[in-house]
Structure formats: structure tokens, C-alpha cells
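As a warm-up, study this chain.
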Amino acid sequence: MNPTLWNEKWTAKGPDAAQHRHSPHQPDPLLPQLVGPWPTGRALDLGCGLGANARWLARQGWQVCGLDFSSVAIDFARRLAEQDENPPDFRVADVTTLAADETFDLVTAFYLHLSQAQRQSLLATLHQHLRPGGHVVFVAHDRSDQSWSPSDPKGPPPEILTTPEEVRAELSGLQVLRAEVILHDAHQDGRAAPVTVVVAQR
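Now compare it with the structure written out below.
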């Protein structure tokens, strides 16, 4: 996956809610379930796309930084958040090279398409960017999802699919609170599919 490819995808889709699995104004339904009870603080949303998750966090009182390597997605996200009372700080950035001096109370990664090596490297260092008591929420397509075909241009490459066990092992320096596969509306056509859900805490 690369910025050029995603810039082309976002340009083709545009910010129209009808083009997406969920409205760009509403978060992934799992986010409020997982994060809702926690006290607010500073949050980092990795691979934020159009910013729906970041904007929901901001509406709850979080100070949010949303990162994505697609300049088109970030431009759309900023435009969608123009009227928000507490807009996130949306930045064009490579999530695999986080600034060493930035720390957060929450790091979220929903359907972040990384190679296995990139994911391992990122997750192994997230504890360095978490404040004491801070959480990581990781949600991704699970390897048990048989609906993806290697030849499907709309699906993720098979090598980026995950399992809870792999993600648990890769989150070094953190206490894993939850690691499981659940059925979730993870496809654009509304089909429920197995996703990896991992929650960890420093």
C-alpha cells in the first residue's frame, strides 16, 4: 500500500457518505463501545482516513491528532471538521515513523493496512508513545475471514490480515486486556465479518 494508491482511491470516492461503509461523520461502531467509558486525554488515530473516528473522539472531549499518509484523505478530513467545536489536528504523515517526543493517553488503529513487518515494528514501539495508564485499541480484518480473495482488487492484500495472537505478541511492553475475534460490519456491502480486536494498556 502506498500514498499514491490511496490518494487515487479517496479522489475516486470523495467524502460522500454514500460511498463508504460508514458515514464520514460517524465513527466505526466499535469505537464508542471500546473507548466510551475511559477518561479523556490526548489521543492519536493512526490511518485516520476521512477522520470519523478522530472527530468522534474530539466530540467526547479528547484532544486528537489524526495521521494518514494520504494527503487527499487529510484534506477531506479537515474540510469535514471545519465546523466542529473541537476539530482534530489532522496531519499528513507516515504512521510507521512516529515522532519520538509525542505521547498520548490513547492510540487507535482501525483497519490500518500495513505489511506484517511494518505492523510488527509499529506495535513494538507504541508503548513509548503511551502515557502511564494509556490504552491502545487495534481493530483489523482477521485472517479467518474467508470472504477475501487474493485477486479481489477491493480487498486488502492477504499478508496484512491479522490474528489476536499475533497482535498480542507484537504489542511489547503493554498489558493486553482484550484479544479476540468478533463478527463486525467490516465490509462495504454491510456483511458481517470476523475482525481482530485487541485492547492493551501501559
